[in-house]
Amino acid sequence: MSRSQWICSPLQEPYPGALNFTKTVTPAGPLQSARLAVSSLGIYRAQIGGADITRRVLTPGFTSYDKRGIQRQEYDVTRFFRPGEPAELAVAVAPGWAVGHFGFAGNDRIYADRVCLWAELTLTYEDGARETVGADPTWQVYTHPVIYADLYKGETVDLTHVPRCVGNARVAEVPYPLIPDMGEEIREQEILTPVLIHTPKGERVLDFGQNMTGYVCLHIRGERGGRVALSFGEVLDKEGNFYNENYRSARGQVIYILSGGEDEFKPRFSFQGFRYVRVDEYPEDPVDPEGFRGIVVHSQMERTGRFSCGNEKVNQLYHNIIWGQKSNYLDIPTDCPQRDERMGWTGDAQVFCSTAALNYDVRTFFRKWLADLRAEQGERGEIFGTCPERTGASGSAHSKVSAAWGDAAVLIPWTLYQQYGDLSVLSENFDMMRRWVDYQRSAGPEEYLWLSGDHYGDWLALDAGEDGYVGATSTDLIGSAFFARSAELVIRAGEALGREVSDYRKLYENIRRAYRQAFLEEVLACEIPSGQPDTLGGKLTQTALVLALQFGLCRQEERPVLTEKLVKLIAAFGGRMSTGFVGTPYLLHVLADNGRADLAYDLLLSEKQPSWLYSVDRGATTMWEHWNGIKENGDFWSPHMNSFNHYAYGAVGDWLYRVCAGVRAEAPGYERVTLAPVPDRRLVRADCSVSTLRGTLESHWRYTAEGILYSFTVPEGITALIRLPEGYTRQVTGGTYRFFRRRGQA
Question: Of 433, 434, 479, 470, which is closest to residue 452 (Cα–Cα)?
């Protein structure tokens, strides 16, 4: 028997590439089973007899190592062993999130100064005997053909490298606990083929046709020592040349050194975000694009929602939303996959969560991430801007506490409960939800308003200028509005769980009263002049009005007045929206819910900047971080912070499902639904399906020469209220229902 330990290399200095930890194992007799449990500080790849034991990549994934622990995976490896035959167990470990560069430029070795391995092989023999082979100082450590690996800076694979033994492993002191594996597996998902283009500068560039997250696989035969060097980019500049200044310090270069035989290369310990790949070095001319493939990598998720319509630009927008999610749901909900960031920004995650849960089954994905969010909640109830928060050895937070970002602690569990009807997501997170609201209550000088702090505001809204960050909306208003929304949802979650929430009911009413006095009364009394109106200190902006209407912070009789003011603000901004990360997810909902679906469609279909179709017109295949990431003259917004694969503005997908197609859950888990499509002739048709735990809901509408044809499919176990725009209503259960309404028919 052997007790497993954390082990590391005997080398005195951290190693820049992968290190191979090896142990030869010889089963003493016929096996009933063999199971291998593995974890690492760094990213590991496990093999037995030279064969990969799993299809997973980038294991053990990224968790809050210091606050919660490191995931351990377990594999059935029985098939790799034969009685009496020695087999080499080899686990290569490279820096990854724990030891490599992570976060903004300059952050590295956040959780450890070197890679470490924990492993335990359990052999169960047919006679019932059991043998355990654990990681300990008898394991040997070798160098590896991956001589450099970093998530941001790339990977170098040298097949001429002759691995050398650097000695026996030594015991490592790892202060982080091992925890069960609970997330979705990260896997290779799709394969894309490129075309080769030559830029005006003469660069050889592979265009994969799709902005993606993953890596390039190369099949090649060439002279021993020949080199292939690749650089990655999302877009070409306005002259058509390769561009990746927006990657900042994430150099992301991949280098392959040929063995002299038939080689297959792909990164094992890094990933890139890219559409374009510049071939900086290649052993011959011309470059053969047939040898290259793009491997799409993301967390395993089942597709549950689909939408299409008769407008190809809107279809491309929906395509971009899907690919933005696939690109950024890699173990954690990242903000972007390409630059020196790739962090789990809480605000981005919460604004997109509803769309994400319609597109894919994200229950397991978010269960893991919410466990990290709970673990990292501050002593006063704070929720920080990123998760995992990468505090590491310093113990101090790297991002700030902000309204709309911290509210992910409440909004995401509630959204998941509504989508899947699983009370456990509320019970697991209710204490975190409640503590966050308690923090908001105590965060500033006022008990019922959040009037202090350094917030992200209406991030990247254009109403404060094209080069601004936080937008023109008052951060006090945003903070107080989300304070009210989170308090309301804590009440509703508590009621669903049977918890005592009377104190929060009183709190919520006091917040609404204080909000009205501080932010609404002046807005209700003012007149909006033609031209650009005064924002009244950030109280009168599109986002300010959207939040009041969406969160129910106004009286019912005031809705027409506030809606009219919102319409006038849109007109004053040239008929365009001026909202950022906070206001945009709700803007079209507010317009449609308050009688202005026509204007909601105008904004959806606008091609003027800012708009969703502006990026589509410029060839986007994923969502942009900035409305004006590429300006009308072709210049880039800035290399400092300009991702072309951010999913936040893809939150409009929720509106496509719930308003355009009209599929709305009225009870958690779709036990009761409303099917109330809002058609617009400019889309010609809409076809939507949402797979629920009770079956697949479908909603279709199509304009014909005589009128509109509607079709709905309702699974057994779901009660649906069909409500057509012409005023017809009908309650139905399982079945398919079709309706035709002629023009002018009520």
Answer: 479
Q: 343, 103 in Cβ contact below 8 A?
A: yes
Contact indicator for 397, 451 with CB cutoff of 8 Å: no
Q: 214 with 297: CB under 8 angstroms?
A: yes
Flag whether 663 is in a domain.
no
CA distance 431 to 417: 15
Instruction: Spell out the residues 6+ positions from residue 247 whose beta carbon is closer than 8 angstroms to its own.
Output: 232, 233, 338, 339, 340
Name the strand (E) or helix (H) holding 409: helix 408-420
On whether the CB atoms of residues 482 and 550 are closer than 8 A, the answer is: no
The continuous run of DSSP H or E covering 356 comes out as helix 346-359
Q: Prior bond to 60 cis, omega within 30?
A: yes
> How many CA atoms lie less than 13 Å away from 323 in the CB half-sphere?
24
| CATH number of the domain bearing residue 159 | 2.60.120.260
The DSSP result for 222-265, as a single string, is --TT-EEEEEEESEE-TTS-EE-GGGTT---EEEEE--SSEEEE
Angular region, 544: left φ>0, alpha ψ -120 to 50, beta rest: alpha
Instruction: Give, as one character, the DSSP assignment of residue 316.
Output: H
Burial class (CB within 10 angstroms; exposed 0-12, middle 13-18, buried 19+) of 290: exposed
Sole residue written with tokens 């690996």:
149
pLDDT confidence of residue 105: 55
DSSP annotation of 184 reads P
Q: Which segments of the chain have a pLDDT < 50? A: 1
**Which single residue is written with the structure tokens 């560069």?**
101
d(CA 551, CA 554) in angstroms, rounded, equals 8
Domain edge (last residue) among 653, 683, 699: 653
- How far apart CA 347 and CA 335 sit, in angstroms, is 9
Give residue-wise pLDDT tens across range 129-148: 999 999 999 999 999 999 99
For position 1, what pLDDT does the model report? 41
Structurally, how many domains does the chain consist of?
A: 4
How far lies 655's CA from each of 236, 352, 533, 592, 658, in Å?
Answer: 31, 11, 28, 9, 5
The confidence score (pLDDT) of residue 531 equals 83
361: left (phi over 0), alpha (psi -120 to 50) or beta: beta
The C-alpha atoms of residue 213 and residue 248 are separated, in whole angstroms, by: 17
Q: What are phi and psi of 274, to 5 degrees?
A: -170, 160
Question: Pick from 257, 263, 260: which is nearest to 282 by CA?
Answer: 257
Whether 655 contacts 600, CB under 8 Å = yes
* Residue carrying structure tokens 């893809």: 650
Six-digit token string for 13? 């200095």
Q: Tell me, yes or no, whether 624 lies in a domain.
A: yes
Which residues participate in catalysis according to the annotation?
341, 625
Q: How many other β-carbons are positioned within 10 Å of the β-carbon of residue 380? A: 12
Q: Are residues 600 and 684 both part of a single domain? A: no
Helices (H), 498-596: 502-515, 521-525, 542-550, 559-572, 584-593
pLDDT in the model for residue 467 = 86
